[in-house]
Fold:
Amino acid sequence: GVNDRYAAINSLTATVDFQATTGGARQGKQTDITPFHGYILLRKPAMLRVLALLPVVRTHAFDLASDGKTFKLVIPPKSRAIVGSNRVMKPSTNALENLRPDIFLDSVLVQSITPQRLVYLTSISETHREGKKLVETPEYELHIGQEDPQATDGLKVRVIKATRVIRFSRLTLLPTGQDIYDEDGAVETHVEYGPYKQFGTAHMPSSIVIERPRESYRITISVQKVLINQPLPDKQFELKIPSDYKIQTLQ
Structure:
């Protein structure tokens, strides 16, 4: 299941193309950001490096590195760097400045389900159009949550707080998407996984679409190449900030 797939991968190196879109219904318009070529390096439990290159000139558009607790985000075109905790506490109006390690760590691999979580399974059927045809896709939804002691206190029922929903194809039993919820029960990250392909020994989705509804942006990751369980030393996750960069620290 979910835990077996997650346990099988200790490290991952992916060659990808990034396409970011900002705005949407909330802002009344959408803006497509110039696509980037780049790389995602991941070593469990939470070492991460995400590097994007500017088109044609191939210089760095941004470089993100994390040890699982804190991160560094370097944006060379602006001679800026952002350092702080892995989660977005105060969203920026600039989509690139809202990138955090947890967004990629939660999406590139479907995280395992910890033993104390409460789960239940439902069946649904999604209908979508392919050309002139309507195609029905049967899916399972695995709902994951935990008891909310504050909400339960004084009631005769146990209140469960949703933390994640993972969608699977009922035909292949492979994940097709997931929703990750924040502390207030709103969807923080919505992920959709494209058709699965064989990349060497890795059976991975060929695309990963990450939506952040609250910050009004979407990142589409098109996977070109994947290597799994290759040695990734600590130096691969080290990121030096040039001395002349303006550094913003987020708490």
In short: The chain has three helices and 16 strands.
